[in-house]
Amino acid sequence: MKTLTPPEKTQVHNVGMAQIAVVPEADIARSVLGSCIGLVLNHSARNLSAFAHIVLPRGEGRDGPPGKFADTAIPHMLELLRRERAGRSGLVAKMAGGASMFGGSGPIQIGRANDEAVCEILDKYNISIVGRHVGGQKGRRVTFDGGTGELQIEVAGEQTVAL
Amino acid sequence: MSAETITRPSLETLTELFRSATVHASKAMADWTQGHVALSLEELQERPLEQLSASIDMGNDLMTMVVLGVQGEMDGQLILAFDEEDGRKLAAGLLQRDVNDDPEWSPLEKSALMETGNILASAYLNALTQLTGYKLLPSAPYFLQDYGASVLEQALMTQAMVTDHILVCSTRFLFNHQNVNWSVFFVPSQELLHVLGREPTAVSPA
């Protein structure tokens, strides 16, 4: 007799600042970004991804979870994926965020610094960036689908973009 | 500048300071709205960034906001945030008109909200000036519709770049004695927090 197994329930990971989520095929990750970077490392052959909400470019010995800084988040994402047998070979990256939202006031360079740090570190690990939607002066609401590998980006008053 | 080079006043000292400033701001808002709006200090919280972003739930939807900075070297951001419905109600009340259901905000509605932000920030910073002796002035307000969490995230960067524990002052609003979904968040820079804890010195009112 053929046994039918019900599909696993989709889990939605709301990834807050400095958090990292491992996103299996059935799951979805969401985040709202300003100057931070939402980074996806996707291993399509293993149907597994990691999503990080990176706040600052470099830790330089500061306290905080690994997801807070680009230079600690990316190695930690690689380790989390490796533990699930998704090695570095076959990984691709998609990223969004890095806005400078307050025009002439506030720390306007941090979004750009985050973008540059993430790109530099991914390059060091030979991970290709296959989708990138960064900069500007508006926030982004992003949704990553672990099944399709698509990163959907919503910006107020603009058409939704899919990477 | 590293976090270690700055001595920050105690949370109790800052709470009393911000409570006094909120009382001044509430009086100014009551004058501006003919007594319809009052505000009080909800919480002054200091937490690691990752915990703070979880504790301040701005939702995932678009919000209407007025953002002002603190002029000069001190830096800091004040964010006045509304959901669409409540923002429209306030604008309509101030303009003594019916609530506008046009998806686009009119220049007059935007102006009413920006002026509200200006009055609130001026009263708040004036009070802090009187209490601390350090002259603080708000920048020009600007209106934006964006994701609340994005804007708050950017404001938090003022502190996050130099310290791992972030301090945010949040305020509760009453509109005709009812709680409403309006929020004010004030995120001072580390330098501003430092001067807020100093002994008062004489200064002309801003």
Task: Describe the model.
The complex is a heterodimer of chains A (163) and B (206). Chain A is α+β, with helices and mostly antiparallel strands. Chain A contains 2 helices and 10 strands, in the order E-E-E-E-E-H-E-H-E-E-E-E. In chain A, the strands form 2 sheets. Chain A has a 5-stranded mixed beta sheet, with no helix packed on it. A 5-stranded mixed beta sheet of chain A has the order 2-5-4-6-7, with helices on one face. The mean pLDDT of chain A is 89. Chain B has a single domain, classed as CheC-like (Chemotaxis protein chec), CATH 3.40.1550.10. Helix content of chain B is 42%, strand content 26%. Chain B is built from 6 helices and 7 strands. In chain B, helix 1 packs across helix 4 (107-132) and helix 3 (84-95) packs across helix 4 (107-132). The radius of gyration of chain B is 17 Å and the shape is globular. Mean pLDDT of chain B is 79; it is low at 1-6 and 200-206. At the A-B interface, strand 3 of A face helix 2, strand 2, strand 4 and helix 5 of B.
| Total strand segments of chain A | 10
CATH class of chain B: Alpha Beta
Low-confidence spans of chain B: 1-6, 200-206
Radius of gyration of chain B, taken over Cα atoms and rounded to an integer in Å: 17 Å
Structure characteristics:
heterodimer; A: 163 residues; 60s Ribosomal Protein L30, Chain: A; 5-stranded mixed β-sheet; 2 helices; 33% strand; B: alpha+beta; Chemotaxis protein chec; disordered N terminus
Set out the fold topology:
The complex is a heterodimer of chains A (163) and B (206).
Chain A: E1 12-14, E2 20-24, E3 28-33, E4 37-43, E5 48-54, H1 70-83, E6 91-97, H2 110-124, E7 128-134, E8 140-145, E9 151-154, E10 161-162
Parallel strand pairs in A: 1-3, 6-7
Antiparallel strand pairs in A: 2-5, 3-8, 4-5, 4-6, 8-9, 9-10
Chain B: H1 11-32, E1 37-48, H2 49-55, E2 62-69, E3 76-82, H3 84-95, H4 107-132, E4 142-147, H5 148-160, E5 165-175, E6 178-179, E7 182-188, H6 190-196
Antiparallel strand pairs in B: 1-5, 2-3, 2-4, 3-7, 5-6, 5-7
Helix pairs in contact in B: 1-4, 3-4
